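Slide 14.
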Amino acid sequence: MTRTPAGRLFRTATGHDLVLTRTFRAPAADVWASLTESERTARWFGPWEGDAGPGRTIRVQMAYEEQQPWCEVRIDACEPLQRLAVSMIDSYGAWLLEFALTETDGSTELRFVQHLGSVEGIAEVGAGWEYYLDMLVASRDGSARPEFDEYHPAMQSYYQGLRG
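Slide 15: predicted structure.
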């Protein structure tokens, strides 16, 4: 299957924002549950454990990565049904991520943002988020899970081109 990349890159005062969106025919509460309930995040990213809340750190398993590693994720902001901001640090650097929901006429738009200090590695990062957000879509509509090979290296040149 040929996938079309949809990410956009915006310059900010501190670097760049990589922005991807997906729209769901569902109320924000249902999409929010897919982002925050462990059994639902397990369907597209991985389960998590811990005492969640703003300022707290939970453990998240990256269930669709090789060796399915666990990582610590700090919840920077949690505004139910509207915005979730998290951060984590791993061997690839700091990951500052936000999920914002906007419900209109029974549909909900998810705006995903990764705040980047540098655009180095964006070709891999962009393709990876396309994959995970399509995994989220599949987990919600019951469609077949996408294969990572459909995204990388196929989307690499698109994301490399966003660097300008």
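Speaker note: The longest helix spans residues 122-141.
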